[in-house]
Automatic annotation (TrEMBL):
Pfam family, one: DUF525
Name recorded for this polypeptide: ApaG protein
Domain ApaG: from-to ranges: 8-132
InterPro entries: ApaG-like, ApaG_domain, ApaG_sf
Organism: Caenibius tardaugens NBRC 16725
Domain of life: Bacteria
């Protein structure tokens, strides 16, 4: 089944698409824990092969608290994308509030050695209303 990507950003021919879903089975609302899973697809529509080196996330919870997360690659990989290549991965985000948001950027290296900063689109994290 094809994932419905709800959010996208394009930087210098590189498209980042995001689909996000709340996971009630991984959440513990009574304990103040909510969990979302997000699927990212990176599409290289540029003319150069690029390699993803690092990621930077800005995660904001429903109280406005911001957490910055930096790391190498994505889910343990530093994928190489040739022209028209794609890379998909799935990860998750826990929060202590029923809503928040994520956004950020990836740093790629082009064949020329030049760094390329690619935007990850802003996307909301929103749990459905509950009766509690």
């Amino acid at each position: 089944m094809e994932q419905l990507f709800q959010h996208a950003a394009i930087t210098d021919g590189v498209t980042v698409r995001v689909a996000v879903n709340f996971l009630p089975e991984q959440s513990h609302v009574s304990a103040g824990k909510w969990f979302w899973v997000y699927h990212i697809r990176i599409e290289n529509h540029s003319r150069e092969t690029i390699q993803l080196l690092t990621r930077h996330w800005r995660i904001t919870d429903g109280n406005g608290a911001v957490n910055h997360v930096d790391g190498e690659g994505v889910v343990g990989e530093q994928p190489i994308l040739p022209p028209e290549g794609t890379h998909d991965y799935v990860s998750g985000c826990p929060l202590t509030t029923p809503h928040g948001s994520m956004e950020g950027h990836y740093t790629f290296r082009k064949e020329s050695g030049e760094a390329l900063r690619v935007a990850i689109p802003f996307f909301p994290l929103a749990a459905p209303a509950t009766a509690d």
